[in-house]
User: Fold Glycoside hydrolase family 13 protein from Nakamurella flava.
Amino acid sequence: MSVIETNTLETVSAAAGPESGSPADDWRRTAVVYQIYPRSFADGDGDGIGDLPGIIGRLGALAELGVDAVWLSPFYKSPQADAGYDVADYRDIDPLFGTLDDFDALVAKAHDLGLKVIIDLVPNHSSDEHVWFQQALAAGPGSPERERYIFRDGLGERGELPPNNWVSCFRGPAWTRTTNADGTPGQWYLHLFDTKQPDWNWEHPEVREEFLSVLRFWLDRGADGFRVDVAHALIKAPGLPDLVHPIQDPEADPEGFFMNGPMWDQDRVHEVYQSWRALLDEYSPDRILCAEAWVQPLSRLANYVRPDEMHQAFNFEYLDTPWNAAALRTSITASVASNESVGAPTTWVLSNHDVVRHASRLGLPGNGPRPNGIRAGDVQPDAELGLRRARAATLLMLALPGSAYLYQGEELGLPDHTDLDDDLRQDPTWWRSEYTEAGRDGCRVPLPWQADAPGLGFGPTGLTWLPQPEAYTELARDRQLGVAGSTLEMYRTALRLRREYGLGPGSLEWADDLGSGDVLSFVNGQVRVAANIGTTPVALLAGATVVHSSVELPGDGTLPPDTTVWLV
Ligand code: NOJ
Assistant:
């Protein structure tokens, strides 16, 4: 056992950057944003798929939780080939989810409750059912309509080979061949994701104008901003050069494919976001842009949050940092410093609809790479350990200066569904990987609201588009609300204290000379935070008052393993 001391403090950051006026008032720098995945949040009409009326009915629960804003994953008109990230009409709501009137009602109710509303914008690709793509197919090679997407002739004697060796993020080729009007094989089009998600050609002025108009459409309807899907992919390297090494399995070589390929993070992509920022600034001063950009190193990510671009960029490097004190400290220090260099806050996140939930991830043995879903035959997470670590990880994250995103259900401590019937999987990764990678369905299961209701209260009929695992009954919201020590109450208290102590706009000073290298210890304003990432208890500071902890402390003055504490 060892004593945590505070004699040496290393200042890493002050959250206020050169561009901020009054950081305490600037929600974009400090907000806790709750991600709603509409199809799995709450079902209003009883068809088993969540919808906007369902969300409206449950917004009160989010205000009660204490978040500042919600981000809605796509609700646009879509054939749902990628759960709505395949948009057929950027200015309409899919009937699955409701109507534009429902959207207006949702924004009004959220604003009444003091919640901002961020929506998802998907600019890299549309659905193949988008009218412009349909026109492009009909108009044929060489037509202006085809210029809005990325069509190319094939290689080989008869154009039978794809134009380059790029692969889809969902596995398989990134090119699909079209059929000409006379039935002969035609040109190929690029899709970095599914065949039904053709990439836009962002070199085309009409595409740029169209998206500026789409931004205006939603800003005029009251949206407070946008989470920008695959923000780093819009501009491709000139000439669409081959990947240096033909990569069959991007998951096996993430550095080579997901981060460094010629389709990612091209310098000219920033022109687009500068123009978007200028447009947002024409509106009230507090609209927001948040980048989903899987970019390395951190200095490249910081480019997206320069003063004339976006306000936030998810810190996925942090999400992927193993449960290891040294690694976490390095990641936090580097993230804060990198964002600070451009005057931006850091945007922390531990879970979302694309990754195994942190309550499951942190229960997996070892510190291996994050799996793309977990199947029944795979090594199963240790549920108890996973939840304990997830709670500690959350309290650590929520004590850091900057903003933070929560994924729906993490406030209940939900794990992934790890033994979902393979026949029920809907993520295109499952079939595109030839049934080798589970994909993301396990983290997208409908939420449990009421333990005793059919479908755990997800909707009025008990139908749920994916079955809920058994563990969800005990974790249902009504089993946790008002129950001391529950994960839900841990989150509520954390969010209240985070606000009261000003942790979001605060600063971070590491406390050195720790008794254990396995403890992360820092000061943010009045609050001293300690997270024991190791395997043995450490002694807490004598005389300090515990204001919050991720689990009940043993009462003997020690901080147990996999536990975070906030002290004053
Ligand atoms: C990132 C989104 O979060 C993911 O769900 C989607 O499949 C891809 N972008 C493609 O839009």
Observations:
- The chain has two domains: 18-123+210-492, 131-190.
- The two ends are 21 Å apart (CA to CA).
- The domain at 18-123+210-492 is CATH 3.20.20.80 (TIM Barrel).
